TrEMBL record, chain A:
InterPro entries tied to this protein: AAA+_ATPase, ABC_transporter-like_ATP-bd, ABC_transporter-like_CS, Metal_Ion_Import_ABC, P-loop_NTPase
Keyword Transport attributed: yes
Domain ABC transporter: 5-238
PANTHER family attached to this UniProt entry: METAL TRANSPORT SYSTEM ATP-BINDING PROTEIN TM_0124-RELATED (PTHR42734:SF17)
Basic and acidic residues bias: start-end ranges: 260-272
SUPFAM superfamilies on file: P-loop containing nucleoside triphosphate hydrolases (SSF52540)
Protein name as catalogued: Zinc/manganese transport system ATP-binding protein
Region of interest: Disordered: 260-296
Gene Ontology terms: biological process: zinc ion transport
CDD domains according to UniProt: ABC_Metallic_Cations
Keyword Ion transport applies: yes
Family to which the UniProt record says this protein belongs: Belongs to the ABC transporter superfamily.
Pfam families documented for this protein: ABC_tran (PF00005)
Automatic annotation (TrEMBL), chain B:
Key words of the record: Membrane, Transmembrane, Transmembrane helix, Transport
GO biological process: response to zinc ion; transmembrane transport
UniProt protein name: Zinc/manganese transport system permease protein
Membrane topology according to the record: Multi-pass membrane protein
Organism of provenance: Faunimonas pinastri
Keyword Transmembrane tagged: yes
Coiled coil spans: none
Transmembrane segments: 7-29, 49-73, 85-108, 128-152, 164-181, 187-204, 211-235, 241-262
SUPFAM superfamilies in alphabetical order: ABC transporter involved in vitamin B12 uptake, BtuC
Cell compartment(s), UniProt: Cell membrane; Membrane
Family indicated by similarity: Belongs to the ABC-3 integral membrane protein family.
Length: 296, 291
């Protein structure tokens, strides 16, 4: 069986800046992978590359055995939620439905079958009632559900979720993570889920993909989230502290992920400054599940 | 009042324009590009006065200039968003050039007034034909464009991933907007295009969040404002454009009040769900900013 995502010596650049260099890894079908890394580490860029929106500067990307290209309906994509959505006075149903083969020319009128599909994905995320309300009257968590429904339109095999937990409180974070887990299990989806913090994903994800300093490390949480591995990715000394099943990533006295999550967006950049000079970490995922190991 | 030919032409011309601006205006409001529409009309002023100066029909100059400006703004795309100052400078510069062209062409003082504030009661048969052509072109283009345009407006990143060219769709839409602006300048004049282009759509947006209904309401409001304005002008002898702006303001106000009252009477429309707890405003991650 072909892998869901295979990166082969992949290089990615954005505006002349190297985001990833020489990264090779494979993600198996049905895997739930948490994608972590500081701001600017390239989580969004990697997703856009998988969608065919950013061309590799080196190497190749294969999605379900075929080169990454735009318009691949096998991929469902949930972009980072935009603040401007809060001003859109359009019903949730119409918002979700706009993505139903929305790339075709013509009038945005849906046939009975397409309407059933929209209702279907709304049911999958439990947002049928929610969708009757306008977007601007929904909370952030409610909007996330609609975005998730939209990503599921067309029954994709791979789901790319970009920061679904952004600015949600702990309870809502938990609800979103369990929803995604349920969808992944029930429909055999491959999920790539970016996040600022590992803790909401512990016990749910199969593996973690950590980006930093142009490199990537893929493996089990306990293999990747370690002092030595993260120190290499950040190019700065990092301590990993485990307390009561939770993991805290610290640079000096600061909890890194905590800082990233709050207002201080610049912090992560500073730490990533060692990018290009730092020691080399290469993720080499041997198999689809769990066998991947970072060579430290 | 229907015994006069000029009145019949006025009703027909404003009906064509109302349908077009009702639909175009809805998308313009949804996309948050109303200022672009306003700026396009001012660019049209320079085009129209320039055309008069060299002996071409003002409508031709209007269409030509707004179309070029619309396509130019569309191609600039994202780089123009948030550049209100740059757009505003071009807007003012265009008005300045329009004034200069009028200065050189001193024969008609009324020409300036009718360009700036419209003269719907003086629409000629040939202008009516031209408006019909423009209107049909706009509606035909929108019929092809509407689906990807809506997708690109509501979910640009996803639309792009599915193969929609945001630049192409955005440029085509601004070209259609330019034609709609030129057409509505004939009715309410360049300075008051905003009233027909944005007023009805904004009012419709207050009344409903269902998309097809909102577009329909937008058209109905535009039609009511245009025809109501002409009728009131006929009986009062006040300027048509004044009445249209007055009606547009009134309808927008009424729609806003309707929304407030309706929301208060129907709290059940905001049912409690497990997800209603207030979340912090969602924020983009600047570090992973899109190119």
């Amino acid at each position: 069986m072909t892998e869901a995502v295979v990166l082969d010596r992949l290089g990615l650049q954005l505006g002349g800046r190297a985001i990833l260099r020489d990264v090779s890894l494979a993600i198996g079908r049905g895997e739930f992978v948490g994608v972590l890394g500081s701001n600017g580490a390239g989580k969004t860029t990697l997703m856009r590359a998988l969608l065919g929106l950013v061309r590799p500067s080196a190497g190749s990307i294969r999605i379900l055995g075929r080169p990454a290209e735009r318009g691949n309906i096998a991929i469902g994509y949930m972009p980072q939620i935009r603040a401007t959505l809060g001003a859109v006075r359009v019903s949730g149903w119409d918002f979700v439905a706009s993505a139903a083969r929305g790339e075709r020319w013509g009038l945005p009128l849906l046939g009975a079958e397409a309407r059933r599909q929209v209702d279907g994905v709304l049911d999958m995320v439990g947002a049928r009632d929610l969708a009757r309300r306008p977007l601007n009257e929904l909370s952030g968590g409610e909007r996330q559900r609609l975005l998730m429904a939209q990503a599921l339109l067309g029954r994709p095999e791979i789901l790319l979720l970009d920061e679904p937990l952004a600015s949600l409180d702990i309870n809502h974070q938990h609800a979103v993570v369990s929803l995604v887990k349920e969808l992944q299990r029930d429909h055999g989806l491959t999920v790539l889920f970016t996040a600022h913090e590992i803790n909401p994903l512990i016990g749910v994800i199969d593996r973690v993909l950590y980006l930093g300093g142009g490199d990537a490390a893929l493996g089990g949480v306990d293999e990747v989230i370690t002092g030595p591995t993260l120190s290499r990715l950040y190019g700065a000394p990092i301590d990993v502290v485990r307390v009561d099943g939770r993991i805290f990533v610290m640079a000096g006295a600061h909890s890194l992920e905590r800082d990233c999550h709050g207002h201080d967006h610049g912090h992560g950049h500073d730490l990533g400054g060692g990018r290009g000079h730092g020691p080399y970490v290469r993720a080499q995922a041997a198999g689809p599940r769990g066998e991947g190991r970072s060579h430290v | 009042m229907f015994e006069y030919d000029f009145m019949l032409r006025a009703f027909a011309a404003s009906a064509i324009v109302a349908v077009v601006v009702g639909v175009v205006g809805y998308f313009l409001v949804l996309r948050g590009q109303t200022f672009a529409g306003h700026a396009l009309s001012h660019v049209g002023f320079a085009g129209a006065t320039g055309a008069v100066l060299v002996g071409v029909s003002p409508l031709a100059g209007l269409v030509g200039f707004t179309l070029i400006a619309g396509i130019g703004m569309g191609l600039m795309g994202e780089r123009l968003s948030g550049r209100d100052v740059a757009v505003g400078m071009i807007l003012a510069l265009s008005l300045g050039f329009g004034l200069l062209f009028l200065h050189f062409y001193t024969a008609y003082a009324t020409q300036a007034t009718s360009l700036l504030f419209g003269n719907i009661l003086a629409v000629s048969a040939s202008t009516l034909w031209a408006l019909s052509g423009l209107g049909l072109l706009c509606l035909a283009a929108l019929a092809v464009l509407a689906r990807p345009l809506l997708f690109a407006t509501l979910q640009p990143e996803l639309a792009e991933a599915r193969g929609v060219s945001l630049r192409l769709v955005g440029t085509l839409f601004l070209a259609v907007t330019a034609l709609a602006v030129a057409a509505s300048s004939e009715i309410v004049g360049i300075l008051l295009v905003f009233t027909l282009l944005v007023g009805p759509a904004a009012a419709a947006n207050q009344m409903t969040t269902r998309l097809p209904l909102a577009v329909l309401l937008s058209v109905v409001f535009a039609l009511a404002e245009a025809w109501g304005g002409i009728t009131l002008a006929f009986y009062t002898d006040w300027p048509t454009s004044f009445w249209i702006t007055a009606l547009a303001g009134l309808i927008y106000l009424a729609a806003s009040l309707f929304r407030v009252v309706w929301l208060r009477r129907n709290p059940a429309q905001v049912p409690a769900t497990p997800f209603t707890a207030t979340d912090a405003a969602p924020a983009l991650d600047p570090g992973d900013a899109l190119p």
